[in-house]
Design a protein that fits this description.
The complex is a heterodimer of chains A (124) and B (222). With 124 residues, chain A is mainly α. Helices cover 48% and strands 8% of the residues of chain A. Chain A has 5 helices and 2 strands; from the N terminus they run αβαβααα. In chain A, β1 (36-40), α2 and β2 form a beta-alpha-beta unit. Chain B has 222 residues and is α/β, with parallel strands linked by helices. The chains are: A mainly alpha (124), B alpha/beta (222). At the A-B interface, α1, α2 and α4 of A face α1 and α3 of B.
């Protein structure tokens, strides 16, 4: 289909979004991810019955935590699509990319980079 | 088991914001079962605090540990070689664990990370209900296995009261009337004659009215 989506999106494969834990999502942000999208199967189509519904709740919980810790819950989104919807995948990848671009770099990444490379004023 | 709920994140942030080295200590006991203070909750809180302090440009070391139980000295001792390196500790154990940790390391600032609620059962995933108030003198044998102390809002020994309506309590329509449950259960068991014998007033000395309680089992002592 030769579909295009941003190249700086790192794909992490899991057997089911039900495997995605709150700890995994928080760790991604701790490691400096600007945004995270969880792409699960369509609701009602989970091979494991409720994996994607569990993921939906976990994503919401992490969004709440991110809002409270000043990272902005908007950096995390969950999408539902089937394995046959390649066009939709490229679409949501571009969607989250645009959203994160608008939000700017993660404050965690900014703080880390600042700690490693202080500004000239700070270094002085 | 003991049921607890995590304290709001903002409250914990406020407690530890003035420290540079903080240890979060979870408990593998009851609070793990009710998903308030086990290994995973320690990781989530640790992650959340690190994110908060990093974005706030404040360097705070947040470390994590989870003990088998915080209500046993032998497990608390596992922290003895590392606890001095921290200015404050957030314990995600129940109130017993928090206090025992503070007793064991009496010069250390220990904060609670959960709100301990009651002794209860799991009705469903994430749904917990109170079943025992640890009154120290169990009367379940005479009440069809339904405790009027824990399940009647008035802790009546001879119920139900006039506030019972269609099996619900007047305090809240979501609360089952404990004495209605007792009646139904005794009816099923064919023991309704139990209602013909009023129960004498309870000696509450074995409950909290007798002050903080302590059990000494000499047969178990070494």
């Amino acid at each position: 289909m030769r579909l295009q989506y941003p190249t700086n999106i790192e794909i992490i494969k899991v057997p089911c979004t039900g495997k995605v834990d709150i700890v995994h999502l928080l760790l991604a942000f701790e490691q400096g991810a600007d945004g995270v999208m969880v792409a699960g199967c369509l609701e009602g189509d989970c091979h494991y019955q409720v994996g994607n519904l569990r993921a939906k709740k976990r994503v919401q919980r992490v969004k709440d935590i991110l809002d409270k810790v000043g990272v902005n819950g908007g950096r995390l989104e969950m999408y539902n699509l089937s394995a046959g919807q390649g066009t939709r995948f490229a679409e949501i990848a571009r969607d989250i990319y645009a959203k994160v671009l608008e939000l700017g770099p993660s404050p965690i990444r900014v703080a880390r980079e600042k700690a490693v490379r202080p500004t000239v004023e700070e270094a002085a | 088991m003991i049921k607890a709920v995590p304290k709001p994140l903002e409250e914990i942030i406020d407690l530890v914001k003035d420290f540079n080295k903080v240890l979060i200590v979870g408990c593998d006991g009851c609070v793990t079962v009710c998903e308030a203070g086990g290994l995973k909750e320690v990781k989530v809180l640790g992650s959340a605090l690190r994110l908060y302090f990093t974005q706030a440009d404040k360097r705070v070391d947040i470390d994590e540990a989870t003990l088998t139980r915080q209500c046993d000295k032998e497990y608390l001792d596992e922290l003895k070689d590392r606890i001095d390196g921290y200015e404050a500790v957030v314990s995600l154990a129940c109130g017993c664990g928090v206090q025992f940790l503070a007793e064991r390391y009496h010069d250390k600032i220990v904060y609670p990370g959960v709100d301990t609620c009651f002794m209860g059962v799991d009705l469903d995933r994430g749904v917990y209900a109170e079943r025992c108030q640890a009154c120290g003198k169990c009367i379940l044998a005479s009440t069809g296995g339904v405790c009027p102390i824990a399940r009647c809002s008035k802790r009546m020994l001879n119920g139900p009261c006039g506030g019972s309506e269609k099996g619900k309590c007047e305090v809240n329509a979501d609360i089952d009337c404990g004495w209605h449950l007792i009646y139904e259960r005794l009816k099923t068991l064919g023991q309704l004659d139990r209602f013909e014998q009023p129960v004498d007033p309870k000696d509450w000395a074995s409950s909290r009215d007798g002050g903080p309680r302590k059990i000494v089992r000499e047969d178990l002592q070494i």
